[in-house]
Design a protein that fits this description.
The chain has 182 residues and is α+β, with helices and mostly antiparallel strands. The chain has one domain: Chalcone isomerase. Helices cover 39% and strands 27% of the residues. It has seven helices and seven strands. The protein has helices at 2-20, 32-38, 89-102, 107-111, 114-120, 154-165, 172-178, and strands spanning 22-24, 42-51, 54-63, 77-83, 129-135, 138-143, 146-151. A seven-stranded antiparallel beta sheet has the order 1-7-6-5-4-3-2. A hairpin with a 2-residue loop joins strand 6 and strand 7. The longest helix has 19 residues, at 2-20.
Length: 182
């Protein structure tokens, strides 16, 4: 019984403390194109993800410098996905978890972010876009060019984009295209 109570207390404490690090954004109208221009981002590469003969999404990587330094928190990075088919929030989260597992990310390292992703991410329709801006203080998500919230944990953004940019990604061709190494 004692173990159950301690576990329950730690779970409640963890949820409360993590909620402090996540900020949902009520500010609408943040134009992603203006953000790209203001930060002098340039497109590094584009890639289309296709399964068999279904196009799932088109993605694009933006960076300030000529060469992307993976994991360099001193340089902001923007990654945008333009969806070509509908996908529910739950499906998106499941696919994200599958990719983290493929990369060998320990469950303890990503589990903490799942409640925030469930709150921030919407259901996606074909034509919608979802982008992440990574900087020194955290990562902000944009849905159809409007900021929808921030995760104030510097390591989260790189953990997320590693799905596409890690040398161990499940999609090495996509990675090469995004990094401009066709």
């Amino acid at each position: 019984m004692h173990k159950v109570m301690v576990s329950l207390f730690l779970s409640i404490f963890w949820l409360f403390s993590f909620n402090l690090a996540v900020q949902a954004s009520d500010s609408r109208g943040t134009d992603l194109a203006k953000l790209i221009e203001a930060n002098q981002f340039r497109s590094v590469g584009k890639a289309k993800f296709t399964v068999l003969f279904w196009d799932i999404y088109q993605s694009q990587l933006f960076y300030r410098a000529d060469v992307v330094e993976l994991g360099n928190n001193n340089q902001p990075l923007l990654f945008e996905i333009q969806y070509l088919k509908d996908i529910t929030r739950d499906e998106l989260i499941i696919r994200t978890i599958e990719q983290w597992q493929h990369l060998g990310v320990k469950e303890d390292n990503y589990q903490v972010y799942l409640p925030a992703l469930k709150r921030l991410w919407p259901n996606i329709k074909a034509g919608d876009s979802l982008a992440i801006l990574i900087n020194q203080t955290g990562s902000s998500f944009y849905f159809n060019e409007n900021k929808i919230g921030t995760i104030n944990e510097p390591e989260f953004g790189w953990l997320f984009v590693d799905i596409w940019l890690s040398p161990n990604t499940s999609q090495p061709k996509l990675r090469r295209q995004l990094l401009g190494r066709n």
